[in-house]
Amino acid sequence: MSEDWNTKYGPRRVRRDPPTLDEAIFAAIGITDDHEQQAEIAASLMGMPYDSVLAEVKKQSRVNARATTRVIAGEQGAQRSVVVERRVLRRFGNDKRTGT
Fold first, then answer.
1. If you write DSSP's letter for every residue of 71-90 in order, what string do you get?
2. Does residue 56 fall inside a structural domain?
3. Whole-structure pTM over 0.70, yes or no?
4. 50 within a domain of the structure (yes/no)
5. Is residue 96 domain-resident?
6. Which neighbouring-strand residues pair with 79?
């Protein structure tokens, strides 16, 4: 799907692609937590039948549920936090000069 129009610099074209099914489901997950409503939103974005999209939404939710249940347990089963920090070292160009 493209649309052309003329400008003073010549013809311009805009390409419009519909979202993929995964992108539509990801957007629907961000809007609501209900699977039926997610399927309805994704189906309307894609122009696909509701039943086939609902099956994909349920598959996606099972995969996401497995990925989010990972917990690091410490002593006596208590949860603990893991913090990763990155230290940025800035080097300036004039650091190489000595004796001036």
1. --B-GGG-B-------PPPP
2. yes
3. no
4. yes
5. no
6. 73
Nearest-angstrom CA–CA distance, 50 and 48: 6
CB of 12 closer than 8 Å to CB of 4:
yes
Pairing of strands 2-7, 10-15: antiparallel
> What range does the domain containing 44 cover?
20-67
pLDDT values of the chain reduced to their tens digit, one per residue, 100 residues: 457 888 899 888 887 777 788 889 988 988 988 999 999 999 998 888 999 999 999 988 877 766 554 555 556 666 666 677 676 666 666 655 565 5
In a domain, 28, yes or no: yes
Nearest-Å Rg of the Cα atoms of the chain is 25
